[in-house]
Amino acid sequence: MTNQENSLNWFEISVSDIHRAKKFYETLFDIEMPLDNMMGMDMAFFPYDSGSGKASGALVKSEMHEPSGAGVKLYLNGNPDLSVALSRVEGAGGQITMPKTHISEDVGHMAFFIDTEGNTIALHSQN
Questions:
Q1: What are 72-101's pLDDT values in tens digits?
Q2: Which residues contact 62 (CB under 8 A, 6 or more apart)?
Q3: Within 13 Å, how many C-alpha atoms sit on residue 28's CB side?
Q4: What is the torsional sign of CA 56, 44, 32, 81?
Q5: pTM
Q6: I need a labelling partner for 50 at 20 to 30 A (CA). Which of 9, 43, 58, 110 fits?
Q7: Helix (H) and strand (E) counts for the chain?
Q8: Domain ranges, ordered by start, for the chain
Q9: Alpha helices, DSSP H only, in the chain?
Q10: Taking all residues of the chain, what is their mean pLDDT, rounded to a whole number?
Q11: Alpha-carbon torsion, ordered 113, 44, 91, 70, to 10 deg
């Protein structure tokens, strides 16, 4: 890896109910997430531009994927203002655990929430 490459190229959010989780994230971000089954794993894909070099990921249900509030923290893009997605968390069945918090002028803002699967996920935005 070099400083010319993304440090993240793919992420998977573990879920126990693919349809419930898909609905939660579609509601938060006002997006559609196509479903597929690959290698025995149920997957719902976040928007991506194939071949662009931009990182993306999916919700994944499989024997290897177990939702958890502990461990790695993933920051999803809440630009231009994470308040929009954060305002939808509780209505979609999640729980806000840290409200929108200012980090610095250069870095922006962050917030944490627990999704419908029990994962602790973060949002980041410049505003």
A1: 899 999 999 999 999 999 999 999 999 999
A2: 40, 41, 42
A3: 30
A4: negative
A5: 0.89
A6: 110
A7: 2, 8
A8: 10-125
A9: 18-29, 83-86
A10: 94
A11: -20
